[in-house]
Structure formats: C-alpha cells, structure tokens
Amino acid sequence: MVKKVEWIGLTVLSFILLVFMLNWAVKFAVHSQEDVVVPDLSGLSLSQALNVLSKLNLGLKQTGAEFNDQVPGGTVLRQQPPAGMSIREGKIIRITLSQGGETIFVPDLSAQSLRSAEIALRLNNLSLGEVRGRPSLKYEKDIVMSQNPAPKTMVGKSALVHLTVSEGLPPQDILLMPDFINKNLTEAVAWAQKMEIKIETISEDSLLEDGAVLSQSVAADDRIEGVSTVRLTLAKKRSLK
C-alpha cells in the first residue's frame, strides 16, 4: 500500500515536472525569437511580398481582394500589421490584393431610345459620351443607331459610351441605303431599278427561305451617291436529309 502511494506521488511529481519543462521550453522559444520591423509591402506582387517576408522569417496570408483603379491588379493594396510595426519572428502578415480598376461589359444599346440608353448606361456604371445625330430610313427619330465602344466590349468603370442617334427620315436631297436584311430579293430589285443601281447576287446555304437577303455590300443608312452596284448574299435553303 505504501509503495502504491509512493508510485502515485512519483507520477504526479513527474507530470508537474513535465508541464514545467514544456512551459519553460515554450517561453524560451518565444523569447529566443528576435523582433523584426514589418516591411512595407504595398505595390508588391504576391511572390515579391512572400520573398521579402521569408527573409525576415515572417509568414504571409492573403485575406481578400478588392477593385482599386489606383493600384495595379495583383499587387498589395493593404497589409496588417502595418509597415514599421515591430513584431516577433514567425508572425503572419495578412494582405489584401488589388484587382485593379473594375471592368464592365458594355451593354447593347442599339434600337433603344436615347432615354432608355442613358438609363442602361447608369445602371451599368457607365457614362453617356458624345451623341451624334444622323438621318435614317431604318430607325425612328431618337433611336440609337450605333455605339462606340461596341456591345460586349470590356471597359473601365465610368467609361464614356458614344452614341449615334436617328434624326428621322432624311431630306429629299440625301439618298440612303435601305435595310434589305431578311427581306426578299424582289423588294431589293424593285428599289434598285427605281434608283438605277445594278444588283449582283451570290447564294449561301441557310435555313431561311430561298431568296432572303443575308447581307448587303452597302450598309443600311449609308449614303448611296456614286454607288452603281450593290452586292447581295441570298439564302439558299439547305435541304434537310
């Protein structure tokens, strides 16, 4: 019984000694680490920041990314702890990377009213640029005919989008090319005879009806003064086997 009590006492003493030694080892390891000054990582790429910190025995962790048009994409935007602070070796420096300026796809504004186009631009964080008027056979007055940049182009936030808007039908002294796309050849031929313009045609396999116009060499609403020939690509209905 005495031996058992002695064994229990020895075990408890050994455990206390082990805890003391572990605690001392941890404190020694911590106090043996040197203090280092946190470097300024702003503007560095992820690999450059990692290289700088590894030389100081500091760790790195990316905690996020944000759009910022003042800081190049892929470089350090912010860090924590901040540059100049004194910390122990082995600590982790947390960084937020810049994604550069926010990019936006330009919406398709064609055939919309000028008012609707302005609203669409604002909703997409874009700005209305120069608005030019142009007579049109295809579009009613104040309807968007074309835009620059083109639809689906990637641009920066708040970029300007310039519009060409219909002024309505042209004066009698201005001759414009009609839009024959998806219309029948006979309509184009009747117009060409009246205007004394020659029509040339080629055929292309299509699911549309035979003779439907697929494309025209002179774009709709282009001026036709001096034009003697217009080439049309016509649908040749593909046979389904």
Q: Give the N-to-C terminal Cα separation.
A: 101 Å
By secondary-structure content and strand pairing, the structural class works out as alpha/beta
Strand content: 25-35%
Unreliable sequence segments: none
Largest sheet, spatial ordering of strands? 2-5-3
Helix content: 25-40%
Overview of this protein structure:
The chain is an alpha/beta fold. It has four domains: 1-32; 33-101, Trypsin Inhibitor V, Chain A; 103-166, Trypsin Inhibitor V, Chain A (2-Layer Sandwich); 185-237, Trypsin Inhibitor V, Chain A, CATH 3.30.10.20. The chain is built from four helices and 13 strands. The chain has helices at 2-32, 46-55, 114-123, 185-195, and strands at residues 35-37, 59-66, 76-80, 86-88, 92-98, 103-105, 127-134, 144-148, 154-156, 160-166, 198-206, 213-216, 229-237. The chain has a three-stranded mixed beta sheet with strand order 2-5-3, with helices on one face. A three-stranded mixed beta sheet has the order 7-10-8, covered by helices on one side. The chain starts with a helix and ends with a strand.
